[in-house]
């Protein structure tokens, strides 16, 4: 990156560490699939922390990694996201919640585990699944509302173990961590690692925090990692990796599964990842905290930039806005240079036949054919819904990738003479002329025509 950009990033990180009174802080920026900048401030064992080598506890970033493992099971046909978790696990609570509801925190389960503060107490206190839930295990009906649940992810970790027949972390390491190059992401602390600290609110003093094995609750926040490893996961959120998840499943994971509340929403949740609106951008990632540690990953697919932040103090403080600000600082100082345009190379006469203007009633749209036979539907003028469609399993069909038409089927309906007469998108009919006659428009077109 440009020297001025590097200086700006270092100033932001140094200011956050100093003003936030943080024992140590590491950060990294990812662009074009690799780490292009990193820095460490403060001290770990008397030396500056190494972004590539110093481990920090990552808290709820663990949930995003567990979600990837669950979605791999779905893609293999071992489960459906609509399946009830009780189909696979003998759980006294949440058995009627679906896998998708657990992934997106819509299962209605309690936010925290039974007993004393689970993040600071040994997992042996909750040795059995029945020990996860207390006297008020279900504040909300399943599917009714978003309610963040740590025990819900304990159930998802148990689901991975049940279907794979081995501990969830071993599955995660083999199927997700190692393929992504995250070799320093571990179940527990391994040297070199930071110690967790609480910072006194009214004095420059520190108090050690415990770092316990949380047992059955581990899928909710157990793992340790480095900024370098998390930068590889951030690159995965930006560009994907077909060895781990298909592009379609990654897109599904990163879409809001929870309806954003109001036009000014800032935070929503997908299938194991959060969506954050910050500085005019929509970012995907997750935050994490455990006693003595905070973490954040934010990625902007539109800009091709992501940032990671890790610190060893208990309160989140400025780490979340700092990490999001690093993304914006790079994107604004050094905008993404578009790839050179090239013809698609895989077009056919049948594809070219459906390109061009279409009308839903009187609303004009442009349908463009992109690389990979993807269709790009764009409204012209006011109103209308934009969407992209990927080729379907059957010739002449496509499946919506985003927006209102996500998952809906687009079909090119042909006339008896073989030519395309109209498009059908989930029963909505698009014709070549506004309210075109000929019988395709549901309800018919007035015989008097336009007047």
TrEMBL record:
Top-level taxon in the UniProt lineage: Bacteria
Gene3D superfamilies registered for this protein in UniProt: DD-peptidase/beta-lactamase superfamily (3.40.710.10)
Domain named DUF7586: residues: 348-432
A Pfam family annotated for this UniProt entry: Beta-lactamase
Alphabetized SUPFAM superfamilies for the sequence: beta-lactamase/transpeptidase-like
Ranges for domain Beta-lactamase-related: 13-326
Name the UniProt record assigns to this protein: Beta-lactamase
């Amino acid at each position: 990156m440009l020297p001025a950009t590097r200086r700006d990033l270092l100033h932001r990180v140094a200011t956050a560490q100093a003003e936030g009174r943080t024992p140590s802080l590491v950060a990294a920026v990812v662009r074009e699939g690799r780490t292009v900048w990193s820095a460490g401030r403060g001290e770990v064992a008397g030396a500056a922390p190494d972004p590539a080598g110093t481990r920090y506890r990552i808290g709820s970033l663990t949930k995003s990694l567990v979600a990837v493992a669950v979605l791999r099971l779905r893609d293999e046909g071992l489960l459906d996201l609509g399946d009830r978790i009780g189909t696979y696990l003998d759980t006294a609570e949440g058995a009627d919640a679906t896998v998708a509801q657990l992934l997106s925190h819509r299962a209605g389960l309690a936010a925290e585990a039974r007993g004393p503060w689970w993040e600071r107490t040994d997992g042996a206190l909750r040795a059995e699944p029945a020990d996860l839930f207390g006297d008020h295990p279900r504040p909300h009906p399943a599917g009714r509302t978003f309610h963040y649940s740590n025990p819900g992810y304990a159930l998802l970790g148990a689901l991975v173990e049940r279907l794979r027949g081995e501990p969830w972390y071993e599955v995660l390491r083999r199927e997700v961590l190692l393929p992504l190059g995250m070799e320093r992401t571990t179940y527990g602390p391994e040297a070199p690692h930071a110690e967790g600290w609480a910072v006194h609110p009214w004095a420059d003093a520190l108090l050690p925090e415990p770092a316990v094995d949380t047992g059955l609750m581990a899928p909710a926040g157990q793992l340790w990692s480095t900024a370098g490893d998390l930068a590889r996961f951030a690159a995965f959120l930006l560009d994907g990796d077909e060895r781990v998840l298909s592009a379609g499943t990654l897109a599904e994971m990163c879409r809001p599964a929870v309806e954003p509340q109001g036009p000014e929403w800032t935070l929503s949740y997908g299938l194991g990842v959060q969506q954050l609106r910050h500085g005019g951008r929509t970012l995907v990632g997750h935050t994490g905290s455990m006693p003595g540690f905070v973490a954040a990953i934010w990625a902007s697919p539109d800009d091709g930039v992501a940032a990671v932040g890790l610190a060893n103090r208990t309160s989140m403080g400025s780490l979340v806005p700092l990490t999001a600000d690093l993304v914006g600082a790079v994107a604004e100082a050094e905008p993404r240079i578009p790839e050179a345009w090239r013809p698609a190379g895989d077009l056919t006469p049948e594809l070219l036949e459906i390109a061009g203007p279409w009308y839903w009633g009187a609303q004009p749209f442009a349908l463009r054919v992109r690389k990979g036979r993807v269709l790009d539907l764009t409204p012209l003028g006011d109103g209308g819904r934009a969407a992209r469609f990927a080729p379907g399993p059957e010739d002449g069909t496509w499946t919506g990738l985003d927006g209102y038409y996500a998952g809906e089927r687009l079909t090119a309906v042909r006339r008896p003479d073989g030519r395309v007469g109209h498009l059908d998108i989930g029963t909505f009919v698009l014709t070549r002329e506004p309210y075109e006659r000929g019988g395709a428009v549901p309800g018919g077109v007035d015989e008097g025509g336009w007047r």
